[in-house]
Each structure stands twice: as structure tokens, then as C-alpha cells.
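User: Fold this; C-alpha cells only.

Assistant: Input:
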Amino acid sequence: MTPMSFIRRRAALLAAVFPILAATGCAVMPGSEPPRVNIVGLEKMQGEGFELRFGVKLRVQNPNSIPIEYDGLSMELDVNGRALASGVSADKGTVPRYGEAIITIAVSVSAVAAVRQMLGLADGSARGELPYALRGRLGGGLLGGTRFSSEGTLKLPQ
């Protein structure tokens, strides 16, 4: 292989890979911020056996100058330091630059997780507030997507 053919091959490879890297959006860009995700609603869904199912509505805000294109979504929800629900969705979409979108994802709550939560409430440690942690990923792109996390406190009715 001559040095010139080696350079041509490298240039062709770079020309083929560059558009893919550019299309991955803010997940790769240095200085980009992760999306802000908040739970804005719950809808009861039909479950199987001992599980509970909910449609969780998430407000996803993109604080970046490049849209976030996603192909799939996953999330996990912990309440009071214990795993409560998890879910996945095969939906595709875009969160516009400096914009937001509402995404609904079906999640499952196992009977064991529900019992653990009830026991946690019964021990009196909650005191009117429950800390929660939401973690997930908007799938897609060359590096597998954009991760997000959110923490806060749920206030219990008095």
C-alpha cells in the first residue's frame, strides 16, 4: 500500500464517519447540558397479575442550541430510597432546541416494590415528604443517547 492510497482511505473513512458524528447532536458536544426531566402526570393502565401499570408523563426540557432526537426511552423511579417503577418505550421524537416536549412512558410497579413502599410509609420515617430520584436515557445517536436524572420531594397529603 502506497502512502497516498493510505491517506485516501483515511480521508474516505473520515468523510463517511463525520456526518454520523455530527448527527449525534448534543450528546457528544462538549459543554452541552443534560435535559431537564420532570414528572407532570400519571395515568392508570391495565396491569398483569400482581403488577401495577402507569403511564408516566414526562416534561423534557432541552437547554441546548441543538435539538435532541431520540429513538427509545428508558426510566427508573426510586421513592424514599427504594426502587419503585421502571419502564421503556420505543417511541421516536425530537425535543426542539431550547424547547420542551411531553413524553409518556409505560412503567411497571411490582407487587414486591409496592409492599416495600407501604412498609416504608408505615414505619413513620416519611413525615409528610418522600424523596424521589428519576433516572433514564433518551436513546439514539452514535453514543447510545442522552442520560437524564432528576431528584426532588413528593409532599404527602395531610
